[in-house]
Specification:
Strand content: under 5%
Distance between the termini: 33 Å
Structural class: mainly alpha
Radius of gyration: 21 Å
Number of helices: 12
CATH architecture: Up-down Bundle
Largest sheet: none
Number of domains: 1
Helix content: over 70%
Shape: globular
CATH topology: Na+/H+ antiporter like fold
């Protein structure tokens, strides 16, 4: 029997750890009455280092691999970069139009496809991991290129955005960490080899990303203007909107897979590459583009708390649906045995 991967204990604990860090920051904010503004430089430096570590840990395979399945690849990329922004904006309007900051947070959270652990869920549901890996550079490159467009077209209709702020935030917390992280990865691979990169370097990157992000989140929320009680209550509506997003994307992936006549393995890959999100990367853009809007950051950080259990359920659900929706047709070359 094929052994499948499951999220590590650190991956499973990460959403809870980040929410605990957020709550600690809010407590410090309340105790100090929002007088910790001097922590802002720590937040800027920390988030840059976190995103650089995220980018450094991403191995980019051959771009041409995705072109072997052109129709399926086109469907995945169209869903991620055309359909999802529209779906997220409409869900924000439906659930959160009376809370613009949460609306923005929802849209930002959904704009960046995952660049890592979605492969674990593809493997767990017995999907095509190889094709999923070749989609990674396309997802990463397009989200970097299109982020200023999304900020201007989608977010600019909810809150005013200075064009310079858009490019500054994307450049500082998206493009620059990618360049630095990829450069460090190339240097280690070139001079020390893949054994060093895949061994001690990756062993350090995981804990570093988590605990550096914990420090950033505590400082971020501790240094913001105090939140009001009704703002925290509005987060419950945000959770409902996130659940709705995952439900819509799961059903859409099944529909698209049936329409395109995808195999079970390809439909699994399509499902997870269009549902798993990358909140670690977008938090830096949100922080730079919307200073003084803690609800935007909070909305982005609540997302993974919902995402992890949902993706685990989706993986189990796909395996259970396999004999119902992807029953293999009989091979006409094999005679059907008759009972005597």
């Amino acid at each position: 029997m094929k052994q499948t991967k499951t999220p590590s204990r650190q991956d499973q604990a990460t959403p809870l750890v980040l929410v605990a860090a957020m709550l600690l920051g809010l407590d410090l904010n309340w105790l100090t009455h929002g007088t910790l503004e001097f922590l802002h430089p720590l937040v800027d430096i920390g988030i840059f280092l976190v995103i650089t570590a995220v980018m450094m840990g991403v191995r980019i395979p051959d771009l041409r691999g995705a072109l072997k399945k052109r129709k399926a690849t086109a469907l995945a990329l169209t869903t991620n970069f055309v359909v999802i922004p529209g779906v997220a904006w409409l869900l924000g309007w439906a659930f959160l139009r009376h809370s613009p900051d949460l609306w923005i947070g929802l849209v930002l959270y959904t704009l960046t496809p995952c660049v890592g652990w979605y492969l674990i869920f593809i493997d767990a549901a017995e999907g095509d991991v190889a094709w999923g890996a070749t989609l990674l550079p396309w997802n990463l490159g397009l989200q970097i290129v299109l982020m200023p467009v999304y900020l201007w077209l989608l977010i600019g209709h909810v809150l005013y955005l200075n064009p310079w702020t858009v490019f500054q935030s994307v450049g500082l917390f998206f493009v620059a960490p990618f360049v630095v992280g990829w450069g460090m990865q190339w240097g280690i691979l070139h001079y020390r080899g893949s054994a060093t990169f895949n061994g001690p370097v990756k062993a350090v990157l995981g804990p570093f990303k988590l605990w550096a992000l914990v420090v950033v989140i505590v400082a971020l929320f501790a240094s913001q203007p105090p939140l009001k009680t009704h703002d925290l209550v509005a987060l419950l509506t945000m959770v409902g909107a996130i659940f709705a997003f995952f439900a819509v994307m799961f059903l859409l992936a099944l529909f698209n897979g049936a329409w395109a006549h995808l195999s079970y393995e390809d439909n699994v890959t399509l499902t997870f590459t269009t549902t798993a999100r990358n909140s670690e990367v977008v938090i830096g853009v949100a922080m730079a583009a919307f200073p003084g809007h803690p609800l935007v950051y909070m909305a982005i950080l609540v997302g993974p708390l919902v995402e992890l259990p949902v993706l685990l359920l989706v993986a189990q659900g796909l395996v259970r649906l396999r004999p119902l929706l992807w029953a293999r047709p009989l091979d006409p070359r094999i005679p059907i045995s008759k009972e005597r």
